[in-house]
Amino acid sequence: MFVSTTVVVICFTVFIQGTTIKPLVKFLHVKTQGDKLNTMTDIVINHARDDIMAGIEAIAGIHRQYFWRHRLNHFDREYLQPFLTSKMHSRGEELIEKYDRAKVKENKRRMLESALDSHH
């Protein structure tokens, strides 16, 4: 009896309340927090915090949230991304390639200008 009651309560909470909360919030015009875009500072601080906590856990010899997060990130970077993507690029590599293309284009333009100026 206790188990079946627990299952009914869980199902009611998850399915009934879960599916009706968004329409109810919209209907009541409840003010919600908009999507917050993380700044570069937030991203760097979060990554640094995760790395520091993983280091503390490694020194202390415990395996908790940050240890497993670090392991999963490592597995993702080393095995999943190379396997699932044809060419792995970081944002930094993309910016460098874009800069190089712009530099080549600028150099070509300067060479053409100097060639035209020398002929006149």
From TrEMBL:
Superkingdom of this protein's organism: Eukaryota
GO molecular function: potassium:proton antiporter activity; sodium:proton antiporter activity
Alphabetized UniProt keyword annotations: Ion transport, Transport
One GO-annotated biological process of the protein: sodium ion import across plasma membrane
A GO cellular component entry from the record: plasma membrane
Signal sequence segment: none
Full protein name: Uncharacterized protein
Organism classification: Eukaryota, Metazoa, Ecdysozoa, Nematoda, Chromadorea
